[in-house]
Amino acid sequence: MYKKLLPFLFLLAFLPSALCAGESIRCASTTSTRNSGLLEYLLPIFKADSGVDVEILAVSAGAALELGQKGDVDCVLVHDQDLEKQLVDEGYFVDREDVMYNDFVLLGPAGDPAGVTKTRQSAEAFKKIREAGANFVSRGDNSGTNMRENRIWASTGIMPCRNDKWYLSSGQGMAETIRIASARQAYTITDRATWLSMQDKVKPDLSIVLEGDSTLFNQYGVMIVNPAKYDHVDYRLALNFVIWLTSPAGQQAIGAFKDDRGNALFTPNAK
């Protein structure tokens, strides 16, 4: 997209940010971008460059996409790539672009009762958890994390049932789900950024027991609510935000974001 919009970006480079001062857009995003502190870090930089305020509604990816489908926001920044592309094809969103990625990790209690650390693939790990009847806490909220978890369970050939006493659906965000898993000495799946922001709060109860499997790759994308469906959507300002996130300046800012320990939480990968 950046190459396709070079003429427009050239023009923007010479427009003073004062032209957009006082203007704002609404963006629905995932709790992981809030819990990690990424947006708290990025948005002041974007405002300094553009003059535009971004109001964030931090919810599950599923809820963020619903807000976009209803026209309640101008754009979304989420991490459910297959569903995002489907909704673009269905006409709800336009101008979807990859922005950054991190990964999911599987957390487990001390002692690893299901023997997950002996596995290398997420499907194999989930099978061991089910066979052992070890406690597992799911977000159960149709978030991007929950959808990835469901795909992994599906790949094992058997989905958890309501009667499975070892399986708990929290219906909560990622941070609260991790706290519940810690209290119940249970396994759970989380994005790495949220875990890194919380690990000091739950140690030594939980630790990473599986990481690095290709199925745990976690792509984030940004897209604009289709203004043809909702004429109140501020396409101009939303496009400004998309362009900035995928530009060298935005990508450099994402790559420079680190936690207190110096861990890079997201890797920029706009094309």
Could you write a compact summary of the structure shown?
This protein has helices spanning 6-13, 31-35, 38-50, 61-69, 81-89, 122-132, 144-156, 174-184, 192-202, 235-246, 248-256, and strands at 24-30, 53-59, 75-78, 93-109, 136-138, 167-169, 188-191, 206-210, 217-225, 267-268. It starts with 5 loop residues before the first helix and ends with a strand. The chain is an alpha/beta fold.
CATH class of the largest domain: Alpha Beta
Cα-atom Rg, whole angstroms?
20 Å
The CATH superfamily of the largest domain is identified as: Periplasmic binding protein-like II
Low-confidence segments, given as residue ranges, are 2-16
Characterize the biggest β-sheet: 8 strands, mixed
Strand content of the residues, in percent?
15-25%
Mean pLDDT: 91
Element-level helix/strand string: HEHHEHEHEHEHEHEHEEHHE
CATH topology of the largest domain, what is it called? Answer: D-Maltodextrin-Binding Protein, domain 2
Number of E-type strands: 10
Question: How would you characterize this protein structure?
Answer:
There is one protein chain. With 271 residues, the chain is α/β, with parallel strands linked by helices. It folds into two domains: 149 residues, Periplasmic binding protein-like II (D-Maltodextrin-Binding Protein, domain 2), CATH 3.40.190.10; 114 residues, D-Maltodextrin-Binding Protein, domain 2 (3-Layer(aba) Sandwich). Helix content is 41%, strand content 23%. It is built from eleven helices and ten strands. The strands form two sheets. Strands 1, 2, 3, 4, 7, 8, 9 and 10 form an eight-stranded mixed sheet that branches. A two-stranded parallel sheet has the order 5-6. β5, α7 and β6 form a beta-alpha-beta unit. α6 packs across α7 and α10 crosses α11. The chain is globular. The termini are close together.
